Amino acid sequence: MHRIVLPDIKNLQEIDVYLANQGYYGARLAFQKSPDDIIEIVKKSGLRGRGGAAFLTGLKWSFMPKVTSKPKYLCVNGDESEPGSFKDRQIFEFNPHQLIEGILITCYAIGAQTAYIYIRGEYHKWIKPVQKAIDEAYNNGFIGSRMKETFGTQFSCDIFIHKGAGAYICGEESSLMNSIEGQRAYPRVKPPFPAQNGLWGNPTTINNVETITNVPPIIKNGSEWFSSIGEPKHPGTLLFGVSGHVNKPGVYELPTGTLLTDIIEKYAGGVINAKRIKCIIPGGTSMPPLKGDSIEGLKMDAESLRAAGSAIGTGGIIVMDEDTDLVKVLARMTKFYYHESCGQCTPCREGTGWMLKILKRILDGKGTKSDLDLLISIANNIDGNTVCALGEAAAWPVKFTIARFRDEFENRVNESIQIPVNNKVHSMRKTKNPIDNIEIR
Amino acid sequence: MEFKFSEENLQKIASVQKNYPDKRSSIMPVLYIAQEQNGWISHEVMAEVAHLLEITESEVYGVVTFYTMYHKKQVGKFHLQVCTNVSCMLRGGYDIWNKIKDKYNLEDGGVTQDGKLSLEEVECMGSCGTAPMIAINEDYFENLTPEKVIEIIDSLK
Ligand SMILES: Cc1cc2nc3c(=O)[nH]c(=O)nc-3n(C[C@H](O)[C@H](O)[C@H](O)COP(=O)(O)O)c2cc1C
Ligand code: SF4
Ligand code: FES
Questions:
Q1: Tell me, what's the ipTM?
Q2: B107 and B41 both lie in a single domain
Q3: Ligand 1: distance of its center to the CA of B63 in Å?
């Protein structure tokens, strides 16, 4: 079995162990080639981004201007705040040197002298091993000006950690750059794209932690080796994080194209108490949920999931058994997007709040049948009308959960009419801060 | 209360500022250093940070209020952060939330009278595979039950 990102080697986080396992050999090889060769190898390998959109990595790198008087930057996205995602922290903890080596190669390929690893602020425990690995790499002359002696090159680069402070939106690439710049982290309107006008107005590439960690093995083993693993159109492995109602939740590195049912049954130990799956989210909560009875034969890769009406996202799989209250789940997800909306665009800022109010109303047994269409109409008005993709991330779960589980929602609003209304008077308009008081229990 | 950075922290700041091409961009690490020294980000802290970075106080305020991890008011000695997002919710995150609220008589954002505990409902912390979880200050506690949580909190000193 292929383990590319998290090889099964004990204490690989220690620099000695990493070096004993061909550590930093990929960087050595890379520096003997031209930056364009590296971009070509990564293009040919078919590596696609692991941060959510599965964009071709080599192609993204090729957007960086070859000739410019400006400094160039790499941002490594370790914000990892998509609910259901907990994979990058495995790399921070168990394989930080491969991440660093990947950063060196990437910086060389795109001509960046500085890289920032953006790590979410809550990850105190996982910032430490990365900082330790960076310090060790500096001490060994793998990063910084001493690289020139170590590797016999003209090239050198620095790597810094930038610690987030609790805002999901900072995972969005332009928001991430504003955050590093010390601004309020509002997403930027695109174009201009980061490769032209990124960090402090300079050419910048943003890649996910897992994406970058794939780079050293590709350089060492070649693009054909990589492209032959998993699904041809989306090759390699993915770190699948499985959570929810399974017996053995956790992160499993498996080739793309692995059957979703196999991941659940063979690796995650099956559903607790052998219950049926009602609903499954395949790639973090921003991706459309699927019906449990529609996943037979479904492969986990970007194309297959798109064909099935969802998306690969971050590979964070959330399993919900037959007893799950989907109204509650959807209300909780919507509360998240309401809370995390940066507030720049009216449809996202207001729409998430309205969807939350309505879902809460349904949850409290006060919904009406027209509420369902109202929810979908609000979601449609957000979708495609915002500066960044958080808008879609908030709209899709509402649209697709209601569309795919309409019966459950209809039953809920039909019941509402018969059940006497819970007499806790809670008019949202009368409270001082109406929506923030909403609790989902 | 007036706020001044300690000598040691001024050195830390000088060191972290080398990571950025301009002073202003170091505001996030500088705020963390301030919070470590002062416990929370008061108006006096913001004024001092503004002075140090040569930006306006309102710019500092803008950054502080954008992020949840900068405390806009005093928190307890132990700041309890309970994740109730979907993966945790499916495994009993709200049972833990409700148990803590009831047992210590705390609301979201509240602090106990002795200043020992404060409570915050948080979004996904990246521990969905070991749900449900809470964080206490900087440490994660995973695979919890309401009973275990109370045991952990009661043993805090
Ligand atoms: C609201 C929002 C949150 C995001 N959060 C993350 C994140 O936490 N980590 C990440 O790598 N990408 C995240 N992304 C995607 C990034 O914008 C970007 O596409 C990605 O980091 C590119 O890396 P890749 O090409 O290697 O996948 C997010 C996007 C949006 C719209
Ligand atoms: S879509 Fe939402 S999060 Fe994104 S920029 Fe607009 S308001 Fe902010
Ligand atoms: S949902 Fe609680 S840690 Fe992810």
A1: 0.98
A2: no
A3: 21
